[in-house]
Every structure is written in C-alpha cells, then in structure tokens.
Amino acid sequence: MSQFVSQNQQFHREKIMAESFYKSLDIGKDVANTRTLLHEAIPLTGTIVSGTYSDNNIKNYAHGMFQSVYDYPYLSSSANHIFDLTVGVSAQSGLYSSVTSQKSKKLNIYNQMAQVLAGYDHTGSIQRFDQDGNILAGGAKLDNVFFMNFSRLLIKDEIKKGTFELELGVNSDYDQAGVVFTRRIKLTDLSGSNGYLVNSPVGEYGVLYATQSFGTNAVLAANQYYAVGLLFYQAGVAVISGSVFHDAAKGGILHTTNTDSTRLLSTSGYHGLDIVTGSTNEVIADSLRNRIYNVQFNNTVELNSSVYFCRINHNEYNYSTNPTYLSGSKIRVKTQSSDLPVSYITSVGLYNDNNELLATAKLSEPLKKSSDTEFTIRVRLDY
Amino acid sequence: MSFYKFDEDDLFTNTIEAYPQYRFYTQSGSIYINDMPHLSGANTVNNLGVPKGFVSLYEYNIDRPAGNLIYPFIIKDGHRDTLKTVSKQAYNATLLFGETSTGSYSLSASISRDYYSTTTRTRINALRNTLNHYNYLSPHYQYSSSFGDKSSQTINLISIPSIFYGSKIKKGTISLKYYVTGTLVGELQDKNYNGELVQVGPEGSTGSGSVAGVALYREGFLLLTGSWNLNAETIQTDTNGPSKWIHFNYGANDGNSPALTTLSASFAIDYQGTTHTQTMTMFATAPYGELNHSNNPTYLDASETQGVSTGSIQYMEQPKKIKNVVHSQFLDVEPDFVKTTYISKVAIYDEDKNLIGIAKVATPVRKTEEKQYTFKLKIDI
C-alpha cells in the first residue's frame, strides 16, 4: 500500500510538472498548414545539347530505344542527366508501313508512351495523342512524334505551367554545325497557365504551339499558332509532332513557298520527318538534337509547412528550473527582492501526446519573459 | 490489385551509423578534397561552378557560363515566404506581390583557417564555453590553464563545415600531416580518443608525444597551439620561419597565397565523419494461394475473342481465357494449366490508399499458388 501511495505521489508530482512545463496546442487555433511554391529557372542552351562536348555528353545504348543527354561528359561523376530523346510511330500513321528500321521499336515506344500519358479508350485500345487534347471531339492525332523525357532532377514536382520554351532550327538544308538555326521556330505552352488539360492518367498537360522566332522570310504563316505537341507537366514529357519539320505541302506547318521540308537526316531530298522510316532512333535523336537551339522552363517544388503558434500568457514561463537560474538560493536575474521573476526563453520544444520530445525550435537570441509581457512564438516546420 | 496491411512485425525503423572517410590536402594555397583533381570545363575554370577546393551543393550548374545558370526564385504571395538571401526590408519595401525574389546556386563549402597572434580573436572567444565544457575530456581544452591561455596564445583555428563530417568527427580517426618538400616533418593524431592532438611522428621528432592542440568533434574545429620547431628550414608561413603546428594548413582559405616559386609546406588532414541515416524496413508478403491473378490485359489469351453480347435487357461479357504460360517440353502437348503471375513491383499505400511509393524487383518473380514470397523493402527516411 505504501508503495502504491509512493507511486501515486510520484505520479502526482509528474502531473504537476507536466502541467507546468507543457502547454497543449489547440489544433484548430494554434496550428496552420501552408504550402509554398518554390521555383527554379532551368535554361538549357542548344550548345549543351550539341557541340560543346563533342557528343561526349550523349549516351547511346545497345538497345537503341532512346538516347540520353547529359549536361557534361557522362563519364564524369559531376554530370547530370537532363533528358532522353526518342521517336515513336503509331500503327495508324501513314508512315508506319514504310518504316524499315527499328519498326517494332518505334511502334512500341509510341504505344508505351501513349498508354502511360494518354491512357486507354472505352474499348481498351491505347489512346493516340490528340493534337488539341480534346479527345471526345476527335480531330487530328499526333502519330509521328519525338519524345523528350526530362529528368526528375530538373522538373522536380512539375514543370511550371506557361514557362516552357523549345526553339528549333528549321532551315531546310542539312547541317549539324549550326547553319540550321538561321530559321527558327519556338514551341511554347502558350495557354499552360490557365488552359491546361486534365484528361491524362499522369496529371495535367498543355498544348505546345509553334510560332516563328527568327529568320528573314516567313517560316510560318504570320500571326498563327500551330498546335504541334503536348507537354505533360508532372510527368515532365514533351511530345513533339514530326510536322514541325514538314512544309505545308507535306502536311506540316512550315511555309510552303519560303521553306521546304527540312533535310532532317541527310543532305539529299527535303523529306522532313518522312525519312525517319529508314533510320535508327539514335540517328533521328542526333538530328533532332542538332536542331535544338534552346530549351528552357521553370520547375516547381511544393514546400509544405506546419506553423505552430505557441502562445505564452503573462503569468506563464516566468520562472526556470535550470540549475543556473539560482545562485545561492536566489534568482540570479533579480537584483532586488521585490523584483518579479523573469526568465529568458531560448528554445521551444514540441512534444507528442506522451510528452516525448519530437522537435526543438531555437531562437536566434534569448527572449526576456516577465509577468508583464506576453508572446506568441511562431514555430514553422517544413517537410 | 490486392491490398495487404502491414502488421507491427513487418515494419522496422533503424538508424545506420556510417563513418565516411575524408581527406583534405593543401599545397601552395590549393585545397584538394578526397584527392580529387581540379577539373576545368569548356565554360568555367572549375567545372563544378564553385571556387577550386570547394564542394558544390546539389552540383547543379556544371560547367555553365554566367547568364546561363540554374537559379531558384519564389513569387511573393500571401504566404509571405521568401529566400533567406532576401532581407526583410527588401521583401517588405521593394518587392510587390506577384514579383519574384531570386536566389543563386551554387552553394559551396570548404575548410578554412584562421591564424590568431593578437588578442583580437572573436571566433576563439565565441568558443570559450564550448572549450571549457569539454574540460572533462582533457585539461587541454580549458580556455585558460597551465597548458596555456587561449585568450592570448598564438592559435591556428581550422574550421570544417558539417557537410564534411555529418553529426560529428569520429574520435580516434583524426590525422594531421605536415610535409616540407615532400618529407613528413610532423604528424598529429587524437590517439587517446579524448580530443588531444598528440604528435606521433616521425619517430624521434621534436615534440613527439606532446599535445599540439585539441579537436572539437561535434563542432568541427581543430585548435592548434603547438609552437615548437618541426623543421629547421625556413619556409613561407605566417611569420616566414621554421615549420610549426601553428602554421599548419597555411594558405587554406586564410587569405594567404603562397607563391609557387617559394618553398612552402603541404598539409594533409584525414578523419572519419559520422552520419546517421534512418531507414525503414518493410516486409511485404505474397502468401500461398493469393496474388495469382492479374488484371493486366496481357494476362488473357490474345487468341480468344474478347467480345460482349448485348441486348435490350442484357450486357454479357464472353468468358475470357487466361493464357497458359506453363512451359512444356513438347510442342504438341498443352501442359496442365497453373495459375501463374509475375510480380514486378510492390506498391506502398497510406491509410487513405494514396500511393506513396513503388518498389521494383530487378526481374519479375514467378508466383504460383503453392509459392509464398516475402519482399524486403528498405527506404532511407
């Protein structure tokens, strides 16, 4: 019985101490959850993609399915992977029957990307990429496309809507030394900030529109925006139609009179993307890479925070149990016996329901607390 | 898709303590971290985009010219959050709502050295309480004692940022080596595991066995006070004279740039840090007789017609045949059907069935009704 009493007294003492030290937070009033969006500007000039490192930053694989682009020779441990490039051809494409090189790979890549990014229709068939994203309305499909899969390192949580720019050289003549940039078009997710679409299994996406950005003669019809691709913001994938390298006579967007289809892959014939039928993914990726003048976008990271408002009333925390608080049985910070006790708050401990310490917040300098002051200390926890 | 709930024996949280080895080598004012050479890039003097001898946080702007750098920014909104480099005054007075405040990468860090020969020594004074606190380890820590008065004696303070050691430097792993023209003239070690940096070599050298300083393991500081001559040769140091421990690491981010043509020393600092990584281990079990069916379209036999019959009062799917993937030795014999799936990934969901993680196996695991597997999933948290 005496042991029980003793334990009970001990419990009582602990209870009094707990009530003295710990103050419960009112979840409704004292805790606020916020979300902050942090962005990064990601510029990737064409010289990183082709030229600067003599393609030592370009990794090709034995499987031949895609090509990886790094921002520095990839044998260096400092190199960062920035994106992958590949090409896909749908079975419904007019080009598909003519494909002689890596036919099944190009089809598989298209289907793989389409089933992940566009999903399935009501019959269970893979949905093809829709030019304007309005699947119910039907309309033109993107059947011959390039894929640019950006690294998660760069896109973070998502590409910031309305910030994506891809500038391509569309001068007709074949070249891999910069001459193709004398005529350029720019692809942007023009309506991304307020006109994005949500009917994709992988999140939101916007339509990429092409406009002329450089060149003396009209490369594209004036004052016209051409839907030439899709940009999946959370997945970080740009789907670019092969029509950006075709003239209008071949079903592309380039000005028929002023600009022929590009010599994308060789010096002979203005075939635009049509010539990809006989080339490997690696060769096609090289050709596209050498026509990239600039890529830039902003990314977004969501920072979630909990803010705990720790309120200290005038009659609380004016005394300390710190051993150094007393000197010779007198409060050290009092000069006269009639002075009210004061304390200096240096940190705030956050405890769980079992009074176990979870986190400590430190003040940059001690805060003087006396019975004539009240404080609300704002403790922010980011995660 | 089936959901299984982890029970308490399926989840473990552990802490892994690791001791990464670090090495700083300093010669003629150049610092080499872990013996990595300084590499120049096509666009920058140092391909990491930070000064030589520094590490780059994130290693983002690799060999990028100025004007083409990745940088962070934040838009001023109702949350009133901004980057740390933006002052409160600039944020409140200059920045309008909707405008952006920008920061910059690359953030960098390296060791540095402070030489104190006068009584003006704010950084040493700031360490007074810390030094006195460790008096229980060794009296050499004492700020003022018979071993010396740190408020007036000449001190060589070497600061190591925590990115280079984690939570603390491991006791007994510190080694400081002092070379002159490639010859080792002195070596210090904390051989007693009490923070004292004791000269242990070369054998028979002046000051061998003496304490030349102390190490603050948790704080990442080395305080060197040894002022005996290690070598008679005059070299370029703080005072241009013989080598002493108070001149150790001369030129390491201390504002001194030893001329390459002048005889100087080279220095090596070796130690192990201590890092703690929390890991969660999860055991996901695929029990006998379960997880033997897939909703993947390819699970069904493609040769079968997957039609439906519909009428005014009915909608009926035709029976679907599962593809028999059992291997047979014979071409003309259909082996007995066995329900078989191939497990390619394990998904982790929270209590609201939100997908929070996916673990993939290197090659799909064949699962039949008479087999049971337990997948061990581990994640650093």
Strand content of chain B: 35-45%
Structural class of chain A: alpha+beta
Question: Tell me, what's the shape of chain A?
Answer: elongated
Series of H and E elements of chain B: EEEEEHEEEHHEEEEEEEEEEEEEEEEE
For this structure, the quaternary state is heterodimer
Structural class of chain B comes to mainly beta
- Low-pLDDT runs of 5+ residues of chain B are none
The largest sheet of chain A, given as strand count, sense and whether it forms a barrel, is: 14 strands, antiparallel
Rg over C-alpha atoms of chain A, rounded to the nearest angstrom = 32 Å
| Straight-line N-to-C gap of chain B | 27 Å
Query: Helical stretch count of chain B?
Result: 3
**Which shape of chain B, going by the Cα principal axes?**
elongated
Give descriptors for this structure.
heterodimer, A: 383 residues, alpha+beta, 14-stranded antiparallel beta sheet, two-stranded antiparallel ribbon, disordered N terminus, B: 381 residues, two-stranded antiparallel sheet, 3 helices, 5% helix, elongated
Describe the structure.
The complex is a heterodimer of chains A (383) and B (381). With 383 residues, chain A is α+β, with helices and mostly antiparallel strands. Chain A is 15% helix and 36% strand. Chain A contains six helices and 20 strands. In chain A, the strands form four sheets. In chain A, strands 1, 2, 3, 4, 7, 8, 9, 10, 11, 12, 13, 14, 15 and 20 form a 14-stranded antiparallel beta sheet that branches. A two-stranded antiparallel sheet of chain A has the order 5-6. Chain A has a two-stranded antiparallel ribbon with strand order 16-17. In chain A, a hairpin with a 2-residue loop joins strand 11 (197-200) and strand 12 (203-214). Chain A is elongated and about 100 Å long. Residues 1-7 of chain A have low confidence and may be disordered. By secondary structure, chain B is mainly beta. Chain B contains three helices and 25 strands. In chain B, strands 1, 2, 3, 8, 11, 12, 13, 14, 15, 16, 17, 20 and 25 form a 13-stranded antiparallel beta sheet that branches. In chain B, strands 4-7 form a two-stranded antiparallel sheet. In chain B, strand 13 and strand 14 form a beta hairpin. The longest helix of chain B is centred in the first third of the chain and has 7 residues, at 88-94. Chain B is elongated and about 100 Å long. The model of chain B has no long low-confidence stretch (mean pLDDT 92). Chains A and B meet through strand 1 of A and strand 5 of B. Strand 1 (31-45) of chain A pairs antiparallel with strand 5 of chain B, so a sheet runs across the interface.
